[in-house]
Write a structure and sequence with these properties.
12 strands; 2 domains; 4-stranded antiparallel beta sheet; 227 residues; WalR-like
């Protein structure tokens, strides 16, 4: 029997949503766990230790914000919020509390699956890592936290390096804004989008000094990728 790609826990009181996500995720090779309220969701997370949790905010027995806090305290840091609430302050609050992404209902299933894949790739790269990443003539040495172009070291700030490393680990793949900001500035979500634009601009300028190519591409309304 083929080993599942990863285990995903869906905490949502809408049976139709759980069924849709279970069918879609299952077809892609994920092991899917379900819970219809906060109490069962926290219990399932404790027992099965899923790699990713999909959390609805409007649960019948407890607000999703408090569930997220409980999950964070238990060490479950890979949590994507799924909600019909589309308030910007609400999003900031949840991302600042530790959610790695926020998806608003109704949602595109293809985009939803893409965000699942990105979240799990980021988790895998952070836990495993590799000694060296090579892309577009640049060499990123993870153990040294250094970047070279044709053996010449590129002077980057710590945050510029972290941003480039994250993009390079998933080159040619779009990383949503929310993943980048929650990974790089987990405690400053209110200003994180401004920080991200600033560092993208600085990083592009430094990379452009070594190559004529536009390496970092903006995907409107979604995120960035190393082209």
């Amino acid at each position: 029997m083929k080993k599942p790609i990863a285990s995903v826990l869906i905490i949502d009181d809408e049976s139709q949503i759980r069924r849709l996500l279970k069918i879609t995720l299952g077809a892609e090779g994920y092991h899917v766990l379900e819970a219809n309220n906060a109490k069962n969701g926290i219990k399932e997370a404790q027992i099965h230790q899923p790699e990713l949790i999909i959390l609805d905010l409007g649960l019948p027995d407890q607000d999703g914000y408090h569930v997220l806090q409980t999950l964070q305290q238990q060490g479950h840091h890979q949590c994507i919020v799924l909600s019909a609430r589309n308030d910007e302050n609400e999003k900031v609050k949840l991302l600042d509390a530790g959610a790695i992404d926020y998806i608003t209902k109704p949602f595109s299933m293809s985009e939803f699956m893409a965000r699942i894949r990105v979240a799990l790739r980021v988790q895998t790269q952070q836990s495993k890592g590799s000694a060296t990443i090579e892309t577009h003539g640049f060499t990123i040495k993870l153990s040294q936290k250094s970047v070279f172009f044709d053996q010449e070291k590129i002077n980057l700030t710590n945050k510029e390096y972290e941003l480039l490393e994250l993009l390079a680990q998933h080159k040619s793949q779009v990383i949503p804004y929310q993943i980048l900001t929650s990974t790089l500035w987990p405690n400053h979500q209110e200003d994180a989008e401004h920080y991200l634009r600033t560092y993208i601009r600085k990083l592009r300028k430094k990379l452009a000094e070594k190559t004529d190519n536009t390496l970092i591409e903006t995907i409107a309304a979604i995120g960035y990728r190393l082209n």
